[in-house]
Amino acid sequence: MPQALIFHTDLHLSGYLQYSDYLQYMAEKVLEVIDLQTVFQTNEGATTAVDKISFTLYRGETLGIVGESGSGKSVTSLSIMRLLAMPTATIASGQILFYPKGQAKPIDLLRLSENEMRKYRGSELAMIFQEPMSSLNPVFTCGYQVVEAILLHQNVNKKSAEKQTLELFARVQLPDPHRVFNAYPHQLSGGQKQRVMIAMALSCKPSILIADEPTTALDVTVQKTILELLRKLQHEEEESIIFITHDLGVIAEVADRVLVMYKGRIVEQGSVYDIFKKPQHPYTKGLLACRPPLDYRLKRLPIVSDFMTAIPTKDWFEIEEKPTTIKEITDDVIVTHDEQNARLTDLYIQRPLISVENISTWFPRSNNWIGVSNDYIKAVDNISFEVYPGETLGLVGESGCGKTTLGRSLLRLIEPQQGSVYYQGKDLMKMTPDALKKQRRQMQIIFQDPFSSLNPRSTIGNAIIEPMQVHELYSSEAERIKR
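Above: the chain's sequence. Below: its structure in token form.
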């Protein structure tokens, strides 16, 4: 069977086969999902997260799954891996058939015991999780965790497993693989943790790799390398990939076929060419329209509801299409150059809201014989800038370049070695803990990893109410709940 059928030329999709032509080449199934239904039990009753979906994955194929947050993409992948949080989540019905290489009869993964499933999970089916921080064990080094997976599924000794781990770290472009091998998850950036997860998933050369937003925390240069690595391994090992993402640009680059999910159902599927060039469902049209253009600026972005209305019915949603075009939405909302220049002029005649002067945050790398640090990682090194009221300042750079450390340093969640941060003329570096606590009401941070930022023992409502209580906002608990 040929291994290179779809030629990914560029984002214009001119080199893709039509869906009808594509299917005739795909002969060998590796996974078949039939009428899968996954249900969550909540205080309000049962909620169907995945609603009787069916699809097939072929050997050597990359199948993209796209849809907005909450559409059922990740729950589908967790159902396949049988990693749902029981008994809150259950697979109510359906079949998940895995076709081992060289074996005609499929295995229904839903009929396996947990011990039997462990033999396949990791060796035949592997997953790159969306949240690297919560997927890695904080009390073990990153190297230990990858070595553990290799020893569990491969007949090799520890020395060989360690060598494989270091090679994998190098392949996913982790800087200084030996340092990462001995580092704990909290000592790495978000993008570096994500690459450790990718190395772990690839370690046993699975037949099926489920990649759930695998490049979300990566910068574009590393993202390109990881995507090329996945393609290379796919070609070498005849690996099949289920690639879950909200990034339609990535899907255009890596996928052969696409499933579009909305509220737990597959509303459209086809080749990449058909989905991008000839979308049929209004939801798909809306998703494609929501990508921000790079050649001009809009006063508002198109959204899915511009293209469709979802009317709740007894069983699901009735979709009512709006005959809207992108041109109709954006004609009156394009920001002109004169308007942009006028806004910048208004911004920069104001007094800066934040002034950062020569801020440096270093982390000790090694100590001398008396325990004094003699070598540092200069995560943030002598940075100065200003932010004006009403301005959005973008901070970009490769994974591990110091973006997150700088953000934490500004709020003194990490204490800088030197420098000043002035907020409305007040130097945050000279504030007492009590004064800084009051000031933090005015300066907030949205963390990169929401799962590890929220207390799993607290409800969402209590988590949001807590800072209102700390800062004594509103006169009663009822007002906080309403807010």
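The CA atoms of residues 74 and 458 lie 23 Å apart.
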